[in-house]
Amino acid sequence: MSASPGPSRAQVLALYKQFIKNANGFNNYNYREYFLRKARTTFRKNRALEDPATISAAWDTALKDLGVLKRQSVISQMYTFDKQVVEPLDPKHHSRG
Q1: pLDDT digits (tens, 9 = 90+) for 30-86
Q2: CA atoms of 35 and 2, how far apart (whole Å)
Q3: Which residue segment(s) compose the domain that 51 sits in?
Q4: For residues 54 and 86, what is the distance between their CA atoms, to the nearest angstrom?
Q5: Where in this chain does the record put each Complex 1 LYR protein domain (predicted)?
Q6: Which of 7-11, 26-30, 39-43 has the highest mean pLDDT?
Q7: Which residue among 5, 6, 24, 69 sits deepest, i.e. has the most Cβ atoms within 10 Å of its Cβ?
Q8: Does residue 3 lie within any of the structural domains?
Q9: In the 8-state DSSP scheme, what is residue 79?
Q10: Domain for residue 83, yes or no?
Q11: What backbone phi and psi angles, to 5 degrees, belong to 31?
Q12: Confidence tier at 90 by pLDDT (50, 70, 90)
């Protein structure tokens, strides 16, 4: 039984982009920022992994987490939320004409 070489750099970057894309799909500011922050810190932390078994486990965990994130992002889009104070307002609402 041979061990797989693990995900390539391109695969990891594609997975990271998927995390960012799906995190940005949340309508609620707090959830969106939480998942963006979590993706950044997790990928940064796992960047230094060298053991193939650990890399494989981190890859599997990330794929499962992405599935959950995708489902929750879709559910989030079904509901509307008022803008938070820290969110920028839509620029067309500020025009004086």
Answers
A1: 899 999 999 999 999 999 999 999 999 999 999 999 999 999 999 888 877 677 666
A2: 35
A3: 9-92
A4: 38
A5: 10-67
A6: 39-43
A7: 69
A8: no
A9: S
A10: yes
A11: -65, -45
A12: low
